[in-house]
Structure formats: structure tokens, C-alpha cells
Amino acid sequence: MRAAQRLGPSRVQIAIAWQSWEPATLKADKLIDRSYREVRQLDEGEVLSLKLGLDRPAVAAVEEVGGMTWEGWVEGASRAVGGDFGFAYAAVSAEQFWPASAGGVGVRLSGAAGAVGGERVPAQRLFPAGGRGTIRGYAFHEFVGNLYGAASVEINRRISHPFLSISLFSDIGWVGIDGEGARRAVAVWNQVGAPAGATNGAQVGVGASLGIVYDILWLDIARGLGERGIWEVLFRVRSEFWGWL
Which sequence spans correspond to the domains of the chain? Predict the structure, then answer.
């Protein structure tokens, strides 16, 4: 059951959900190439949760609109009420964008933070980091934990508007693990795939991006500056258009 209410450019959402979780399994038995990324093992069970969200989404337009967007969620579940999990979850993210003027530069600042804890934390409520959408220049979801913080800065300049633009960026992120419930959830997460865990301090990645056709499409080249950093090439679509994909 879900309800939503608009408050000007913002939106409030509240939901009561009963879910039954089952881990994904590979159904195809004849694969030509087995070098695919394995699906992480998630917790199996049922959960009754209450979720409350408040957000200010970006304006979906061909050319990016400047201003601030943000999103915040809290969620709670108790085994005393029903289900197999008991946890409290909170996450927030925000972004401020100043578009490039003719002959000038644009600036984008973004940040995110989250925490989850409780007697039984589901693996699917942990915060993964590394790669696309988090800390570029590190292997995809190389880090995971129940505490998370990240920030990014990007400087953009138009080359041939609206066809091409170039950006320089830097990402920084940290993931921690605290509490027995979180350690159990990380152990479940690591049953399949390469082991993931907390970062050893903050991890930094830097790189450059090429924006194509009103910056709807982006090609990123990133390098992590930490001990586990890698070179990474990413193709992405501007977030306002994810719902169209």
C-alpha cells in the first residue's frame, strides 16, 4: 500500500509493504560466455516494513535544468510485528547543478549518506560502493557495509553545444561495517561473487567525461587513486531519462 502527495516541486511518499524475498538463480544452462558478473546472494525471507520518503526530483528536459535535487528515505521493520527481519534504515542524497553559460563552465556538486542497523539486517539493505554511480575508478560494488558516505564534484565546459561537452570529475567515498547484524548481512552478501567489505579510509577516483547531445549520453574514463584503484571506462545515460529505459 502506497500513498504520495505533491508539495510544490517536492513529493512525500509513505508505504506499508509485505515482501517475500528469494535469492536469484541462474536459469540458463547453456551459455557461450561464462565471464558474466555473478548475481550477489541476498537474504531469503519475508519482511513487513514501513517506508517514508521525501524527494525533489530533477526536471526531465532535453537540456539540463540547473538547481537542487534531493531525496531522503527512512524504513523500519520489526520481527515482533511480523516477518524475518528487524532493522532501521535511512539514506539521503542531494545534488546542486549550475549549468555552463556561453563560454563559461558548469559545476555539479553531489553527496549521499546512509546507515542501517538492527537485530537482523537484510543483505539487500546494505550500501554497495565502487564503480558506476558511486566511486568511479574501482571495481563494481567492491565495497559494501551498513554505513556509507560519498561526494562528487564535476566541472563541465561546452565544446560544441549541443553536441559535445567535456567534464573533469572527482569522486570520494567511504563504507564502514558496524554491529553484529551488519556483519551477518555482509557474510550473506559475500556468499557469491568476489569478497566485498569496508573501505580502508576514504577512497578517491578522478577522471574525465565526454557528453553527447545535450549531455544525455556520457562516456567516462576514470582512475581510482587508492591501492585498489583501476582504470575504468563507463557509458551512462543522464538520470532523468532512466525511467525511459
Answer: 2-20+47-244
Q: What are the pLDDT digits (tens) for 144-161?
A: 999 999 999 999 998 888
Sheet holding 67-77, edge to edge: 2-7, 10-21, 45-56, 67-77, 86-98, 105-120, 147-160, 164-176, 203-212, 217-224, 231-237
Q: Are strands 217-224 and 127-129 parallel, antiparallel or unpaired?
A: unpaired
Beta partners for residue 83, in sequence order: 47
Topology of 2-20+47-244 in CATH? Porin (2.40.160)
Pairing of strands 2-7, 10-21: antiparallel
Quick check: helix, strand or coil at residue 152? Answer: strand
Residue 36: is its pLDDT beyond 70? no
Please say whether the beta carbons of 139 and 103 come within 8 A: no
Give the burial class of 185: count Cβ atoms within 10 A of its Cβ; 0-12 exposed, 13-18 middle, 19 or more buried.
Answer: buried
- Determine the Cα angle at 210 with ends 229 and 203, to 5°: 20
Overall pTM surpassing 0.70 (yes/no): yes
pLDDT at 104: 83
